Each structure stands twice: as structure tokens, then as C-alpha cells.
Amino acid sequence: MTISLEVFRNEALAFFEANCERRVEEAAFVWGRGADSVAMFEEMSKEAEAAMVASAKRWRSTMFDAGFGWITGPTEYGGRGLSSEYQRAFGETATDFRIPNESPFTIGLGMVAPTILAHGIDEVRDAYLTALWRGDIVGCQLFSEPVAGSDLAGIQTKAERDGDEWVINGQKVWTSGAQYSDIGEIITRTSLDKPKHKGMTMFLIDMHAPGVEIRPLRQMTGGASFNEVFLTDVRVHDSHRLGGVDEGWGVALTTLMNERMAIGAGGGGSASGNRGVERILQMAQHFDVHADPVVRQKIANYYVHSRAAALTNLRAVSKIKAGQTPGPELSIAKLAGTNNMLRLGQLVSDVLGPRLVANTGEWGTFSWSEMITGTPGARVAGGTDEVMRNILGERVLGLPKDPSHQK
Ligand SMILES: Cc1cc2nc3c(=O)[nH]c(=O)nc-3n(C[C@H](O)[C@H](O)[C@H](O)COP(=O)(O)OP(=O)(O)OC[C@H]3O[C@@H](n4cnc5c(N)ncnc54)[C@H](O)[C@@H]3O)c2cc1C
């Protein structure tokens, strides 16, 4: 029997009241007060990261055990089997409470779990879906390689069959969260004599298996949120194959469509939050450039573009909520979001000048360097700006196909 939306909302409210603190009305932003971080990526010490992952896992299991961990999921895996309307009601109720950071699960739940559900055999679904959604394990995405990113079909990591098992050798790169992941969705080359899109196979590997070596990559923001992953004779049972042999490209498309939804739905670059327009206005006043017509024009330009991007984003999100698959809106939202980051970076550089590059300890100045050095990563992750433009050129404007995809 389906629970009514009203009863569900009351249940959700009771759950949050029992498990979280209510959000107090956030005080208006005042220049010089509170934390001045505007970082794009979370840069944490090992200890802080371990504590954050442990807290995220505790929160996931609390939600799951109370029946809110996978609201739209199938009941045989611990889901509630309810529609996305219920998921939305839960999300709306959550906005009044302080919720622990759930970022370690973004890839595992946003991309790996939907792929397991669509392409895994029963044994694999049973083994991993509940564990992922309950937060007992974390998943990562092992797609990119040193010579294959936008052109994913160029991957070279090989999987060779050995009886009931496969043996994987190669290297992946930019693997977000590999350092705390338990399983990885890996795309491999299984046939060399077929066209490149037709010779790949997807597997689920144990990130703690012998032969998996994870090395952190330090990025220019100072942190190390991604890794290189080296695979030497890593053995995986055939049951852990996702989809058919040499049919990994179709499986990858399931993951990538979910990735675009996860990134697109969060993108759009609304001029709010810790990089909001109020902060920029007060910064301009503090440095006495608020009357400068060029600065005023740039602030207005940033605000207008951010609003337009946020509204485009809402179009994509409402399609998802209505159970439809969004098309180019997600590419537009991603591109608009990253263009706004560039606009913001330029504006802040104009206002701060050298304060942006020399850490004098002055509040609200050097901290912006973390946002500006994080922007290139956002422009590349989940499909680069140029790849988004190709998608829009081909699917919206009807331009000829990108030569690299005509083969
Ligand atoms: C923050 C972040 C997190 C990431 N996390 C993961 C992860 O968890 N797992 C994972 O597998 N990967 C991850 N990646 C990797 C990401 O998917 C790749 O970086 C991305 O696909 C681009 O590939 P590349 O770096 O090889 O660049 P390339 O594809 O080599 O691109 C280099 C340049 O050429 C341009 N270019 C390439 N092809 C075309 C074309 N056809 N037309 C026009 N221009 C083109 C690109 O836009 C770019 O400017 C992450 C990357 C970032 C930045």
C-alpha cells in the first residue's frame, strides 16, 4: 500500500527532528565576519577527510534504516519503491535542518549504483546495491586514462579472460575519491581487433584487491581529491562483469548519462551561497570600487547570467523530476555554470588585484585563489566546455558532427 504524501512528509519531519539540528536563520552576510572560504573543491587533511567519510557513512545508515535512504529504489534492495515526488518532499523537508556532508557518495550513488541496477546480474545487485545505498561501502569511477578522457573509447587498460576470471592490467587517472572507495566501476579493453567502441567491457572491481595501487594527485588548489590508479594483474570474477563482453560502451553511456544528470542538476551557477552576489557587492564597497562603472557593469553581468543559468538548470531538474530524460539542457546548464565561474574569477581579480596572489592574512582576499584555481577542474570534469559545445552544436543547432565522432 502506498503511503500518502502528507503522511510521508510528517514521517520525514519526525525523522529529521529526531536526528538533526534545525537550521537557524542564517545571518545576513557581513564583510569580514565568519569563514572566508570560497573554495571549489574540499581540501582536507587526511584526518579531517577520514572523519568526514565516517560521519557521512553514519548518516547514510541512519537514513537507510529509517526508510529514507533510497526512497525511489526497489524494495528488494531496501528501497521504498516510491515515486520521485516523495524524494522531492524529503528533500524539501531537509532544507530546514543541518544535514551531514554526503559528498563521498556522489559518484557511487549517482553513477555506479544506477549502472549496477541496469546492467548487473542478480548476485551483484544483491551484493552491492543495499551496501552502497546504506553507506556501508563507497564506489568510484575508473574511466579516464592518461590517453583517454573526452575520447573515452581510446582506453588501453586491458582485461584478459582466464577461466571464470578476468585479469586487468593498466592505469587510470583523475579517479575522484579512490582513496576511500571500496569498489570501482572500471572500463577495459577486451578486443583489439574490433572498432574501438565495440571492444570494451565494464567490470566492478574490489578497490582493496591485490594489484590495485592508489596514488594521490596533488592539484594546484593544494589538495589531493583525485588519484592515479595502477592495476597490475588484478583478478575479477566474471560475475562482476556489467553487461556483455565487448559491450562496455553502452554500459558507459548509462553511467555518463547519470553523471551529467548529477552534475547538471547541481550546476547552473546561481549567484547565491558562499560565492553569492552580496559578498561581491560588499567586497567592491570595502575596496571602494563600487562606483567604478566597469566594476558595476561586471557585477550586474555576473548576476544576470547567474540567474539565467539557474533558471535553465531548473528546466532540466523539472524534466528529471517529471520522469523525463533531459536533453541538451544539462549541457547548457553545465556550460553556463562554468562560464559564470570564469566571469566571477575575472571580476574578483579586477577588484582584488595583487591581494589575490599574495597571502597577507587579510580576510576575504587570498581565499579567492582557491576558487580561481579550482575553476579549470570544474570546466573539465564530467565533460569539458568544448565537448559541451560540440553537443550543443550537433544536437541543438544541427551542425555537422565533430570529425572525431564521424568514424
Ligand atoms: C574535478 C575532476 C574530477 C574527475 N573525476 C573523475 C573520476 O572520478 N573518474 C574518471 O574516470 N575521470 C575523472 N575525471 C577525468 C575527466 O573525465 C577528464 O578529465 C575529462 O573527460 C577530459 O579528459 P582529459 O583530461 O583526458 O582531456 P582531453 O580529452 O585530452 O582534452 C584536452 C583538451 O582538448 C579538448 N578536446 C578534446 N576533445 C575535443 C573535441 N572532440 N572537440 C573539441 N575539443 C576537444 C578538451 O575540451 C580539452 O580542452 C575528473 C576530472 C576532473 C577535472
- Uncertain runs: none
Specify the overall morphology.
globular
Spatial order of the strands forming the largest sheet:
1-4-5-8
The count of domains is: 3
Rg: 23 Å
Number of strands: 8
Helix content range of the residues, please?
40-55%
- Which compounds are bound in this model? flavin-adenine dinucleotide
Annotated CATH topology of the largest domain: Butyryl-CoA Dehydrogenase, subunit A, domain 3
CATH class of the largest domain: Mainly Alpha
Written account of the structure:
There is one protein chain. The chain is an alpha+beta fold and 407 residues long. The protein has three domains: 35-134, Orthogonal Bundle (Butyryl-Coa Dehydrogenase, subunit A, domain 1), CATH 1.10.540; 139-252, Butyryl-CoA Dehydrogenase, subunit A, domain 2; 267-405, Butyryl-CoA Dehydrogenase, subunit A, domain 3, CATH 1.20.140.10. 44% of the residues lie in helices and 13% in strands. It contains eleven helices and eight strands. The chain has helices spanning 5-19, 46-65, 84-94, 106-119, 122-134, 248-266, 277-286, 293-321, 329-352, 368-380, 385-395; strands spanning 139-142, 158-162, 165-173, 183-189, 200-206, 212-217, 226-237, 241-242. The strands form two sheets. A four-stranded mixed sheet has the order 1-4-5-8. Strands 2-3-7-6 form a four-stranded antiparallel sheet, with no helix packed on it. A hairpin with an 8-residue loop joins β6 and β7. The longest helix has 29 residues, at 293-321. It is globular. The protein starts with a helix and ends in a 12-residue tail after the last helix. The model has no long low-confidence stretch (mean pLDDT 91). The structure holds flavin-adenine dinucleotide (FAD).
